[in-house]
Amino acid sequence: EDDLKMKYLVTWDDYYLSGKNAYDDPTKFTLNNQTFLLAGKTQDDVVYRWVYILGSPNDAKHFGYTLKLYGPVSTLTFDGKVAAIDESFPAIYRTGKCFAIPHQMFLNQVLDDDDEYEYSLEIRNLKEEAMDENYESGISDNE
What we know:
There is one protein chain. A hairpin with a 4-residue loop joins strand 6 (63-70) and strand 7 (75-81). The chain is of the alpha+beta class and 143 residues long. 15% of the residues lie in helices and 45% in strands. The strands form two sheets. Strands 2, 3, 4, 5, 8 and 9 form a six-stranded mixed beta sheet that branches. Strands 1-10-6-7 form a four-stranded antiparallel beta sheet, with no helix packed on it.
C-alpha cells in the first residue's frame, strides 16, 4: 500500500459561507502506519488547504499529495508536498505546500447550489514513485 486516495463530500454552513476567519476540523487518515491530516482554514478572505504528516521534516519529504476540488463550474487540482506536523503555517505558505483560493472564487467555482462540494485527496509515497501510480485504496465517502 504505497498510495492512498479518498473522496469526500463536504457541506458548508453559514459560518464558512460568510468568509469569516475559521479553521476546519482536520481530516485524519493513515497510509503505511503513517498518520496524515488534511488541514484547512479561511483567513482574510482566502481559503487554504494543506496536508500534515504526524512526523518529522525527514518523514514529510517522502510524501506528496494531490488535492482535487470538484465543482459545478470547474475542477481545481493542486499538487503539493506534505508538511511536517511542527511546521508553522507561515513556513508552509512560504514553501508553497498549501493550496490557496480567494473565498469568493471558491464559492463561485466549487460550491454547488446546496453549498456542497466534493474533493479527493491522494497521498503519494515519493520513495515509491516507480510503482504504479494508479493504485487506489481506501476510497470512502463521508456524509
